[in-house]
Amino acid sequence: MTIKEIFETMDYGPAPESAGDALAWIVDQGSRFGHFIDGAFTEPGEGFDSRNPASGEVLATLTQATQGDVDAAVAAARAAQPGWEALGGPGRARHLYALARLLQKHARLFAVLETLDNGKPIRESRDIDVPLAQRHFYYHAGMAQLMDTELPGQQAHGVCGQIIPWNFPLLMLAWKVAPALATGNCVVLKPAEWTSLTALLFADICRQAGLPKGVVNIVTGDGAVGERIVKADVDKIAFTGSTEVGRRIRQATAGRGIALTLELGGKSPYVVFEDADIDSAVEGLVDAIWFNQGQVCCAGSRLLVQEGIAEEFHTRLKARMDKLRIGDPLDKCIDVGAIVDPEQLRRIESLVAGAEGTVYRANCDLPEGCFYPPTLITGLSAASPLMQEEIFGPVLVSTTFRTPAEAVDLANNTRYGLAASVWSENINTALDVAPQLAAGVIWVNGTNMFDAAAGFGGLRESGFGREGGWEGLRAYTRATGEARPLTPVEPFSGDAAEPQPVDRTAKLYIGGKQARPDGGYARNVYDTAGALIGQAPIANRKDIRNAVEAARGAGGWARATAHNRAQVLYYIGENLSARAAEFAAGIDRQTGGSGGAAEVAACVDRLFTWAAWADKFDGAVRAVPLRGVALAMNEPCGVIGALCADEAPLLGLVSLMGPAIAMGNRVVLVASEPFPLAALEFTQVLETSDVPGGVVNILTGSHAELAPTLAAHLDVDAVWSFSSTDLAQVIERGAAGNLKRTWVNDGLARDWTGPEGAGRAFLEQATEVKTVWVPYGA
Ligand code: NAI
Q1: CA 349 to CA 769: how far, in whole Å?
Q2: Which residue has a Cα nearest atom 42 of ligand 1?
Q3: Which of 98, 222, 539, 578 is exposed most, by the fewest CB atoms within 10 A?
Q4: Test site for ligand 1: of 242, 248, 291, 441, most ligand atoms within 8 A of the Cβ
C-alpha cells in the first residue's frame, strides 16, 4: 500500500475521553442534587432526571425549586449583597481571580461533565466553552479591580436574577455571573433544566474558593422556576433564551423599576461574495452552523451566496458535509455530537418535515438516538418559514443574491438582529457591507468569534443589552445618587374661549413641516393669571404613526457624517441663542416662573455639548486575543420616541433631542404636557437650522394617551420617558411587541436638570454597540 492510498483510506480511530472523573463527582454528591443557597447545598427535593442525550442514561436527579427555595435564595443574596459590594473592587477581584484559577484547574472535569450533560463534542467543550468561561472570570477580575476608578458614580443594582439556556451551560453562566459579581451584585441563577450539572459543579467551586455565602445562589428547575425568579424581589433580570420567553419576561417586569437585559434568538446571515476564499468560507460555515449542532443563538443559519459561485460553493459544501463525523460526543474525533434532548430533536424534525425546498442530508453514518444529520436546504423563498424561523439545529438554509445591495436587503429581511458573517477578499466590499447589516455582532471572514472583551448582543427581536466589554459591565450597574421624585405638573386654567388675538393656528411638526393634528382638536393654554396665551394641538395615534413614518423615512441622517450632525446642532444652538430673550419671556409666561432665561441658556449649552459629542462618542478597538481587531462601533438605535419632561418646557425637549440626533437617531418627541407652547415655537428654530425633514418630529397632547401607541409601534426602536405621568408599566409592556429598548426608570431617578442631564447615560441610551470582528491574515 502506498502512502497515498493509506491517506485516502485511513479513517480516524476512536479516541474517547474518559467519563470516569465526572461520573465519580456526580456519585460523590450522592447523584441527587439540591440547590446551592447561602453557601451550601440544600437537601434534594422532588425533581426530575438529568440525562446524557447521547446515550439516554440518567446522570443525576435534580430538584425542582419551590417558591420557598426561590425566596430563600433571593433572601440569601439580599443579605450578602451589602457586604459583597463593600469589599470594594480590588477585594472582589481577588475572589473572581480565585474562581478563574479553579475553573482552569478543573477544566477537564468541567469539559467532560458539560459534554455528558449537553451532548456537545468534547473538542468544543474542552477547547471553546471552558476556556472562554475561564477567560470571562479573568477578564472580570480585572474589571472589578478597575471599577472603582473607571466607573465613578456607578454602583451595583443589588440582587440579579439570571436565567440561562441549555446550549452553552457553563459559558452562559460565566457571561452572567462574572460581570454581576465584579460590579458588586449578588445573584440567583437558574440553569436550564436539561443542563444543570456544570452550574452545580460551579457552585462546588464557589465553596472551594471561599466565596462569601449568598453571593452566588443556584436554583434548579424548569420554566416555572424561571417565572418565580422573574416575579421575585430582584433588582435586575438577565435572560438568555428564546424570543418567546424573553417577550414574556419583558411583560412580567414592566413597570417594576428593575433593570432587564435580554439575549434572544437569531437567524443570522452568512454572506459569501464571489471574491471570497471559497474553501475558507466553506470551513467557516462548518463552524457557523454545525458548531454545537447548530444550537447556537448566533449560528450562521442563513447562507446567502452570490449567484456566480453558488453552484461551486454548494458542491464543495456538500462534499465537506459528507466528511463530518457524527457520534459519541466524548470521542475527540467527533465533529457533531448529540442534540440536547429528544424534545429538541422532535422540534427540528417537525420544522424540516414541512420544508418546501430541496433537502440535502449529509451522507454520513448517523448513530441511533438523539442525533440529527448536518442538513442543507436550498430553493426556499425569502418568506418561507424556514428562512425566517430559528431552527436551532444543524440545518442550514441557503439562497442566492446578485449585488451587494441585494445581499444587504436579504440579510436584513428578518425580525432578528443578532449576528452576521461577511466573506470577501475585497476589504472595500467587506467593510462597506458590515455596517449595513442589522446585527449586534459582525464577523468579517470568520464566524462565531467570542471574547470577554468584546460586547455580544442583539438588535430587534434578538433582544437588547450587551454582554462582555465595558458595555456589558455597565449593564450590571446603575447610577448612584438620590432619586428625585417627579411630581405631576398641572396646567394653568382659565375661561377664555379664544386666544386674544389669535395669531397662529396651532400645528404639530411632522416631517419638517407644520401639520394639522389628525383629530382637528387643540386645547387652550393659559398663563398663571388665567389669560389665554395660545392653543396646542391634541395629537392622536394617527399623528404618532405619521411622525414615525416621517422619522423612518429620514434614514439618511444616520449616514450623515458626525461632523455634519455637529454642525446642525451648533446651528440650532446659535439660532436659539439669537432669540433667547423672546423664548425666555415665553417660558416665564407659560410656567409662571422666572427661570426662563436660565432655561434657555441651559438649552443652548446642551446643544453645544451634544454638538461637541457628535464626533467624539466614537467607539473603541477591543483587545481580543486574536490577530486582528474587534471594533466596538457606537451606532444609532434608529427611531427614538421620547416623552419630554413636563416641568421645563424647552430644556425637557432639547435634553432628549440633542443626544438622540447627535448620535444619528431620528426622534418623535412628545412635548411637555402642561406647557406645550415652547416646543411648538422651537419648531421655527429647527426650520431655520438645516435640520433635514423627519429627523425631529414634535407632537403635543396627552402623555398617557400617546405613550401606548409610541411604545407598541413596531417601527420605533426605543422609547424614553421623562414625563411626570407614571408611564413605566405602559411603555415597558407595550415595548414587548418588537422588544424595543426602553428608558423610563433610570432617567426619572436622577436630576436630569443638573449636570447628569448632559451626561454619558444619554449617549449610551442613544446608541447600540455593534462589534465588528476583523481578523488579519494575508
Ligand atoms: P427557553 O427560552 O424556554 O429556555 C431558556 C431558559 O428560560 C431555561 O432556563 C428555561 O427554564 C427558562 N424559562 C422557560 N420559560 C420561562 C418563563 N416563562 N419564565 C422564565 N424563565 C423561563 O428555551 P427552550 O425551550 O429551552 O428552547 C426553545 C427554543 O428557544 C429553541 O429551540 C431555540 O430556538 C430557542 N433558544 C434560543 C437560545 C438562545 O441563546 N438564543 C437558547 C435556548 C433556546
Answers
A1: 36
A2: 241
A3: 578
A4: 242
The reported pLDDT for the residue numbered 504 is 61
Q: Which sequence spans correspond to the domains of the chain? A: 19-49+59-264+474-478, 269-457, 490-616+634-749
Structure confidence by residue, pLDDT tens digits, 325-380: 999 999 999 999 999 999 999 999 999 998 889 999 999 889 999 999 999 999 99
Rounded to the nearest angstrom, the distance between the alpha carbon of 241 and the centre of ligand 1 is 4
Predicted model pTM: 0.96
Q: What is the whole-number distance in angstroms between the Cα of residue 436 and the centre of ligand 1?
A: 29
Quote the CA–CA distance of 322 and 363 in Å, as a whole number. Answer: 5
Give the pLDDT mean for 439-449: 97
Is 178 in contact with 140 (CB distance < 8 Å)? Answer: yes
Over range 549-563, report the average pLDDT: 97
CA-nearest residue, atom 36 of ligand 1 = 242
Q: Which CATH class is domain 490-616+634-749?
A: alpha beta
DSSP assignment of 489-516 equals -PPP----SS-SS------EEETTEEE-
Residue 500's pLDDT is what? 53
pLDDT in tens, 141-165: 999 999 999 999 899 999 999 999 9
Candidates 3.30.70.260, 3.40.605.10, 3.40.190.10, 3.20.20.70; CATH matching 19-49+59-264+474-478: 3.40.605.10
Cell numbers given for 86: 463593600
Ligand 1 centroid vs 165 CA: distance in angstroms? Answer: 6
Q: Is 760 helix (H, G, I), strand (E, B) or coil?
A: helix
Q: Which atom of ligand 1 sits closest to the CA of residue 230?
A: 20
Ligand 1 centroid–CA 173 distance in Å is 14
Q: Does the C-beta of 390 come closer than 6 Å to ligand 1?
A: yes
The rounded Å distance from CA 282 to ligand 1 centre is: 30
The Cα–Cα gap between 18 and 116 comes to: 11
Backbone phi and psi for residue 714, each to the nearest 5 degrees, phi listed first: -75, -15
455 pLDDT more than 70: yes
Beta strand pairing status for 666-670 and 186-190?
Answer: unpaired
Atom number of ligand 1 nearest to Cα 298: 41
Provide the annotated active-site residues. Answer: 263
> Taking residues 495-508, what's their average pLDDT?
69
Q: Which atom of ligand 1 is nearest to the CA of 263?
A: 41
ipTM of the complex: 0.95
